[in-house]
């Protein structure tokens, strides 16, 4: 079920934290949502979505049978959570979560955007964890910096924080129109290196995972690991909004990435 693991992000001797970047395999959904679709707003049968989410929570060892995710809307908002959240329309809005509570799996839903998982330590050694949904909009607005800030406010030591960027659309697949780069360059001239000419005239290729890593480093995160898994190119393993759009499909599934303090 898990696409990616990294000893650099979480060494095997770190047994008090579990994490996973889950793909599309191992669930009960069918058709365009096959099979591990975890998006309540995707249009899939909600019974299938709930079962898929339950399977992941169980696999992670969570104390509740549903990962804690938010109503994502490409914002910079990060919330501290210490318990389960309501379902459906009552789900809190935001694009990142932080907790220091054991047994609570926090996660983000993606289908090309960058799922970012983070962990750090308090002075006591107790863990603090975070999960951020970083599409181009959220990354540009500051969702990653806000997640790091919330982790610090929750007690994490700055030098202890590590981040891992999971499967997301790769630069070879992410064609954008010329002019898309303008707000990135207006914020930081260095962002120019994340854009290169595309084969199609008047278009560029955007390195989203590279840009996410750049923003994390700017926020003071000393260790940032990239999965190098391109969701657009990995049709068997990953859901992709852009691929579904290019195929003329009416909707698309969402994969979940989550992190948990054991206990």
Number of DSSP-assigned strands: 13
Helix and strand element order: EEHEEEEEHHEEHEEHEHE
- Can you count the helices? 6
* Helix share bin: 10-25%
Beta-strand portion reads 15-25%
Query: Which structural class do the helices and strands define?
Result: alpha+beta
Mean pLDDT: 97
User: Termini separation (Å)?
Assistant: 22 Å
* Rounded radius of gyration (Å): 17 Å
Widest sheet, order of strands: 3-4-7-6-8-12
Main sheet characteristics: 6 strands, mixed
C-alpha geometry: globular
Instruction: Flag low-confidence runs.
Output: none
What does this protein look like?
- This protein has 263 residues and is of the alpha+beta class.
- It has six helices and 13 strands.
- A six-stranded mixed β-sheet has the order 3-4-7-6-8-12. The chain has a four-stranded antiparallel β-sheet with strand order 1-2-13-5, covered by helices on one side. Strands 9-11-10 form a three-stranded antiparallel β-sheet, with no helix packed on it.
- The longest helix is centred in the first third of the chain and has 15 residues, at 46-60.
- The protein starts with a strand and ends with a strand.
Structure keywords:
single chain, 263 residues, 4-stranded antiparallel β-sheet, alpha+beta, 6 helices, 13 strands, globular, 6-stranded mixed β-sheet
């Amino acid at each position: 079920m898990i696409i990616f693991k990294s000893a650099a992000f979480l060494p095997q001797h770190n047994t008090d934290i579990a994490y996973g970047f889950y793909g599309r395999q191992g669930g009960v959904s069918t058709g365009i949502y096959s099979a591990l679709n975890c998006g309540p707003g995707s249009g899939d049968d909600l019974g299938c979505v709930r079962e898929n989410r339950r399977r992941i929570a169980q696999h992670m060892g969570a104390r509740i049978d549903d990962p804690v995710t938010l109503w994502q809307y490409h914002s910079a908002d990060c919330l501290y959570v210490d318990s389960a959240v309501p379902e459906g329309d009552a789900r809190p809005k935001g694009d990142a979560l932080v907790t220091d509570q054991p047994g609570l799996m926090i996660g983000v839903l993606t289908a090309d955007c960058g799922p970012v998982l983070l962990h750090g330590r308090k002075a006591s050694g107790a863990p603090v964890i975070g999960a951020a949904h970083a599409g181009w909009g959220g990354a540009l607005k500051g969702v990653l910096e806000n997640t790091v800030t919330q982790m610090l406010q929750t007690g994490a030591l700055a030098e202890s924080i590590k981040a891992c960027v999971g499967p997301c659309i790769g630069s070879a697949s992410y064609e954008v129109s010329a002019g898309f780069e303008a707000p990135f360059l207006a914020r930081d001239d260095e962002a120019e290196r994340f854009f290169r000419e595309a084969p199609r005239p008047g278009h560029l290729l955007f390195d989203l995972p590279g840009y996410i890593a750049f923003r994390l480093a700017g926020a003071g995160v000393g260790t940032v690991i990239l999965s190098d898994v391109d969701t657009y190119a990995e049709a068997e393993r990953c859901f992709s909004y852009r691929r579904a759009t290019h195929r003329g499909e009416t909707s698309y599934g969402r994969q979940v990435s989550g992190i948990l303090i054991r206990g």
